[in-house]
């Protein structure tokens, strides 16, 4: 993955964002770590889908990214 500084204004709509997956049960710890590094909390999606929970954050420039965790297959009924 390669990151490059933007030379022009930030687009009004973000074309894409990263979904970072962490082990089940560690999402909140990772979110807290990222908040400590300067990320901004935006929202949680915890109960809408049985196969994933995630927290959406924004980096220092306002770019959105998600920290997601998926329950073990046994908890998904697989």
How far the N terminus sits from the C terminus, by CA atoms, comes to 32 Å
Strand content: 25-35%
Please list the strands of the largest sheet in the order they lie side by side: 1-4-3-2
Number of E-type strands: 4
- Report the structural category: alpha+beta
Overall mean confidence score, pLDDT = 85
Could you describe the 3D structure shown?
This protein is an alpha+beta fold. The chain has one helix and four strands. The protein has a four-stranded mixed sheet, with helices on one face. It starts with 17 loop residues before the first strand and ends in a 9-residue tail after the last strand. The mean pLDDT is about 85.
Structure, briefly:
The protein has 78 residues and is of the alpha+beta class. The chain is built from one helix and four strands. It is elongated.
Features:
78 residues; alpha+beta; four-stranded mixed β-sheet; 13% helix; elongated; 28% strand
Task: Describe the secondary structure blueprint for this structure.
Blueprint: E1 18-21, H1 27-36, E2 40-45, E3 53-58, E4 64-69
Parallel strand pairs: 1-4
Antiparallel strand pairs: 2-3, 3-4
């Amino acid at each position: 993955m390669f990151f490059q500084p933007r030379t022009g204004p930030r687009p009004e709509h973000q074309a894409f964002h990263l979904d970072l997956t962490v082990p089940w049960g560690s999402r909140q710890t990772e979110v807290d770590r990222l908040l400590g590094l300067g990320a901004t909390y935006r929202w949680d999606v915890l109960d809408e889908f049985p196969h994933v929970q995630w927290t959406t954050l924004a980096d220092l420039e306002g770019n959105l990214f998600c920290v997601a965790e998926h329950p073990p297959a046994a908890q998904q009924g697989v």
